[in-house]
Amino acid sequence: MTPRSPSLAIALALAATLALLPGAALAHPGHDEAIGFAAGFAHPIHGLDHILAMVAVGVIAGLLGGRALWLLPAAFLGMMTAGAASAMTGPTLPFVEPAITASIGAFVLLAFCARLLPLAAVAGLVGAFAVFHGAAHGAEMPETASGLGYGLGFLAATALLHAAGLAAGLAVTRLLPRSRPAAAPRA
């Protein structure tokens, strides 16, 4: 196995993800001191689990290019909003934290194999996990926060994290050599 082997890269990425999982359990401290936009903006920025997942969505979109550049972030933002609205107004969604943690691993895998799947399937998976991220945002909204201001805050922070991931994904596609057919042997 060479250092450039995709299976080695996947194993290293998964090992890094697993090493970061204990921090995900402590990802949501101290948001109740702020109100409105500031509290919403702080939620994803102070949660390592949210940062990793949201940047990963941008990276995947950047690696895929084309319609994925806007579709994956839009799918995440839209479904995250639906998850937050549901958590603010209705019953709580079960398994929110485990699903958020699982989203990190799923997005790492998607970064390596998203080209093998239809874009609609990738967007659907991104959107499904986004519901759980939104549910966490909505459930942890401070009682003193304005729902609209809080929502705009976490949407703005999420969009910034997606943009950072997009920049990284686009940079990787420009830095890595394109696959080319092997040159014909010289006679």
Description of the molecule:
With 187 residues, the chain is mostly helical. It has one domain (34-173). It contains 7 helices and no strands. The chain has helices at 6-24, 36-46, 48-64, 68-89, 96-113, 119-139, 147-175. It is globular and about 50 Å long. Residues 1-5 and 21-33 have low confidence and may be disordered.
Low-confidence stretches: 1-5, 21-33
Helix fraction? over 70%
The main pleated sheet reads as: none
Strand-residue proportion: under 5%
Backbone shape = globular
**Strand tally, please?**
0
Number of discrete domains: 1
The radius of gyration over CA amounts to 18 Å
Average pLDDT figure:
81
N-end to C-end Cα span: 30 Å
Supply the helix-strand structural class: mainly alpha
Helix-strand string: HHHHHHH
Number of H- or I-type helical stretches: 7
Draw up the topology in text:
Blueprint: H1 6-24, H2 36-46, H3 48-64, H4 68-89, H5 96-113, H6 119-139, H7 147-175
Helix pairs in contact: 1-5, 2-3, 2-7, 3-4, 3-5, 3-7, 4-6, 4-7, 5-6
